[in-house]
Design brief:
3 domains, single chain, 6 strands, three-stranded antiparallel sheet, extended, mainly alpha, 12 helices
């Protein structure tokens, strides 16, 4: 970031990132900082640059959305006219009779530009970038989230958002068709370096690779793109998973349930933990319980976990759990 004097005031001078070349013809940009004080200029420069980035992003989003809308409209119109939409180069390679049929159809309808675009391939499909792929993915993956609660949906979305953001930070927001094997190996190398230098677990890298691949593959499939994504053979070896050791009865009594040990929690948090201790349930399962799943005034008090307002993690998660001890006391506090 270079701050330079231009005329009587100071300006920020920076190269235009490659990502914004479609909406910014200049290769270098000067942004006035509206001050002649170097101290004030250095304070204002990051904010001014951030605002410029936001303006470019808005233009990119507008251009992309408009181009996609035009392309979708052309496809629909071609179908209405009884033709399969083809790009201009494919129209040009049609047999002469098929090509003339399309040209005559356009002429018959008064050479309307929209008709010409639809039948002669005038609207090229805009390239789908990685960030745009994520936006499209949410719509394509609706069937995967039908039974999730709002919190489950949040926890399902966040890892995919993270994976895409990390890829863009490392490789860039490239069109899907331009993602190369070298890009994917560089992304894998980024994670390998983090594992070696920061102690990050290979499982974290593999989750990012899995979520990124899932997003990109679905978009390529649903959009019927002629793209072969170079996503194979990237997983990192995880090794044997460490076995989780159980808490001893004594440790639970002397530490978790010691007088005052849970005073930092509110009543509901404390009761959730007490149910977890005695039942082995997931905290999220306890927090999501509905009254219809809780049976206390019966011979054997119990919980009957059902997919009510949420999606259970697996088929075995639908189960009946007897209540006793601190778990029963906790549930009686919140029946």
């Amino acid at each position: 970031m270079t701050i330079m004097r231009r005329g009587k005031g100071l300006s920020l001078r920076r190269r235009v990132p490659q990502r914004y070349r479609p909406v910014e013809p200049r290769t270098e940009i000067w942004l006035s900082l509206h001050t002649d004080s170097e101290t004030i200029a250095s304070q204002k420069a990051p904010r001014i640059w951030h605002e410029q980035i936001e303006a470019w992003e808005a233009k990119l989003a507008g251009d992309s959305a408009e181009a996609e809308a035009r392309h979708a409209a052309a496809r629909r119109l071609a179908e209405v006219r009884g033709y399969r939409y083809l790009t201009a180069d494919k129209v040009a390679s049609l047999p002469r009779s098929a090509l003339l049929e399309r040209v005559e159809e356009v002429a018959r309808r008064g050479a309307d530009p929209s008709e010409a675009s639809a039948l002669l391939g005038g609207e090229a499909e805009p390239p789908i970038t990685v960030s745009r792929a994520l936006e499209l993915y949410w719509g394509f993956a609706r069937d995967l989230v039908l039974n999730k609660s709002p919190d489950q949906l949040r926890r399902w979305r966040n890892p995919r958002i993270k994976a895409v953001k990390t890829f863009i930070d490392v490789i860039g927001d490239k069109p899907l068709a331009q993602i190369t094997r070298d890009d994917m190996l560089a992304f894998r190398e980024f994670w390998l370096n983090r594992i070696e230098e920061e102690g990050v677990k290979p499982n974290s890298a593999n989750k990012d690779l899995t979520h990124l691949g899932g997003v990109l593959r679905m978009v390529v499939e649903k959009k019927k793109l002629a793209i072969v994504l170079p996503l194979g053979g990237l997983a990192l070896k995880e090794g044997d998973k460490a076995q989780r050791l159980p808490f001893s009865d004594g440790w639970i009594r002397d530490r978790l349930l010691a007088p005052g040990a849970l005073d930092g929690m509110n009543d509901q948090e404390r009761c959730i933990l007490q149910v977890v201790i005695n039942t082995g349930m997931r905290p999220s399962e306890v927090a999501a319980l509905r009254s219809t799943e809780i049976a206390l005034d019966v011979a054997v008090p119990h919980l009957s976990l059902q997919p009510i307002g949420r999606e259970l993690k697996s088929a075995s998660a639908r189960r009946v759990i007897p209540l006793l001890g601190i778990a029963l006391a906790a549930m009686r506090a919140f029946p």
